[in-house]
Amino acid sequence: MMKKSILLLLCMTIPVVASAAGGAYIGEPANTNIRSQSSLQKGAKTFMNYCMGCHTMQFQRYNRVAEDLGLTEDEMMESLVLTDAKFTDKMTNAMSKEHGEQWFGKAPPDLTVIAKARGVDWLYNFLINYYVDPSRPSGWNNATFPNTSMPHVLWELQGIRKANYNEEVDAEGNSHAELTGFETVEEGQLSEEAYKDLVRDLVNFLDYSSEPAQLIRMSYAPWVLLFTALFTFFAYLLKVNYFRDIH
Distance (Å, rounded) from C-alpha 40 to C-alpha 64? Predict the structure, then answer.
């Protein structure tokens, strides 16, 4: 009975996973490094300049981010915060849900835990896989998240690209489009590698924001490993001493 229940659960789960992954193009890993404070600082700067106007991080506070990223209050408030917010405020913006729905068709989501919900590889590929599409209301489409309502806010940095798809028809007559690559229409302000580095830093910051405590947890890791090694060593000495007279 238990085996049948487990099999039934797996059968119910597989279609859901396949549906969630369908259509999402994940071309390369993000390769983020949350231990890099420099990367986190750069990512925070990009977020404040390009994302904060529409997206909030209402479960984060400016002072907590500054502390975790090694920034002083002056560095945080003068260099990164572009509003009249206070150092202890939550990271919110002035856009209402109604305005978001009116302008974009859907209110921009809060991004505090987006890295947990989507994963860093998905976020990274989403931000590098935009292409121009006149049929979309915003003029943009995305290979990782087809028909997204979010416009390409970083287009001036990446440039304008069009996507090349290869149409294939299977034995049942169903048509499938496979992405074969992108073609640059207009160069951006950054080179391809520089743009990917910028996106990697941004995604790294989003990963940190989804669980700030992981920085503390990682700082404890070497001490935990050292304790485990010492405990194992003393446990071995105790075992040797205990069984010394036992044959």
Answer: 13
> Which tokens go with 15?
């279609």
Q: Distance between CA atoms of 40 and 43, rounded to whole angstroms?
A: 5
Phi, psi of 11 (to 5 degrees): -65, -35
Q: What distance in Å separates the CA atoms of residue 157 and residue 194, rounded to the nearest whole number? A: 9
| Whole-number Å distance between alpha carbons of 63 and 46 | 18
The pair of structure tokens assigned to 148 is 């997204």
Q: What is the dihedral of CA 75, 81, 85, 90, to 10 degrees?
A: -100
CB 68 within 8 A of CB 212: yes
DSSP letter at 187 equals E
Interval 222-242: pLDDT, tens = 777 888 888 888 788 888 887
168: left (phi over 0), alpha (psi -120 to 50) or beta: beta
The Cα–Cα gap between 199 and 246 comes to 63
Taken in order 52, 58, 59, 61, the sign of the CA dihedral is positive
Distance CA 119, CA 30 (A): 10
The reported pTM is 0.78
Question: Residue 57 and residue 110: Cα distance in Å, rounded?
Answer: 6
Adjacent-strand bridge partners of 90: 61
What would the pLDDT profile of 170-224 be if each residue is shown by its tens digit?
A: 777 777 788 889 999 999 999 999 999 999 999 999 999 999 988 777 666 677 7
